Amino acid sequence: MAQKLRTAATCMLASSAAALLVPTVAGVLLSLASGELSITVHAGAGVVLPMAFSGALRLLSGVVVDAAALAEEHAQIV
Fold first, then answer.
1. Which residues of 53-77 are buried (b: 16+ CB within 10 A; e: fewer)?
2. By residue range, what is the domain housing residue 22?
3. pLDDT digits (tens, 9 = 90+) for 40-64
4. What is the number of domains present in the chain?
5. Among the four residues 8, 69, 75, 76, which has the most C-beta atoms within 10 Å?
């Protein structure tokens, strides 16, 4: 369960990063096609907040995965 949460958080983080990078790369490629170089980065709340949330969720799920592994190890000892 915890591993699935970590995987979902990683996918959310990758999606948020792509939402930031894809328009920037597309803008650079389109500006190069016209003969000029123009770089524009759009970083609004619709991109930054999901990225922060998914990053925090990934960190917390990593702690849960480690805790579950420790609990399993302790259960085998007893």
1. ebbebbeebbeeeeeeeeeeeeeee
2. 2-35+42-77
3. 888 888 889 999 999 999 999 989 9
4. 1
5. 8
